[in-house]
């Protein structure tokens, strides 16, 4: 409902079901921070606080999908803990912006985590000898979280370059973190994905006119100029 992916408090309250035996009981509100489809936009801590207060008043739980919450923290200039202060549970991905080969975390009260581990085992989600992967995750949390602003700077540089390409529609001011969405005036986004892949540039298509690019540890800042040149060539060839 908002440019950064928030849901208005009025909409949340209106979605809470009445005490009626014919309907399921409303139990949970979920927020995503950063918000993927809004271009990696950041939900402010104050907004999350207000949603948390509403949830407590209504007897609901608040879960934050924080796959990129450390990107949100870097952009907002606050800690991830502050952004998630009002949440009951938070999920964190270690293999996206934090560059681990695999892994996610569920953060919450000790008793809830104990029950989550049991459910994981029941569903066959356990792994053996996973300590080597845990080491990668620890490195992500201790080292990679400190360099995320570099990815944000690269994304802004990429956006500014793409905005100058004829046939590309993009407002660089909408790039908040490390996700860049841009539109092709002539459409043919899926053909552009295939053509860019041949040049070593990997992007995805949101629809037939919109492409998505993400900067991360394996995308050095100097490669952004190459990506812009490739997009320029591909867009020109498709017109």
Automatic annotation (TrEMBL):
GO biological process: glycine biosynthetic process; L-threonine catabolic process
Cofactor: pyridoxal 5'-phosphate
Entry keyword annotation includes ATP-binding: no
Ranges for domain Aromatic amino acid beta-eliminating lyase/threonine aldolase: 5-183
Recorded GO CC terms: cytosol
GO terms of molecular function: L-allo-threonine aldolase activity
Keywords, comma-separated and alphabetical: Lyase, Pyridoxal phosphate
Alphabetical list of NCBIfam families matching this protein: GntG_guanitoxin
Similarity comment text for this entry: Belongs to the threonine aldolase family.
Name by which UniProt lists this protein: Aromatic amino acid beta-eliminating lyase/threonine aldolase domain-containing protein
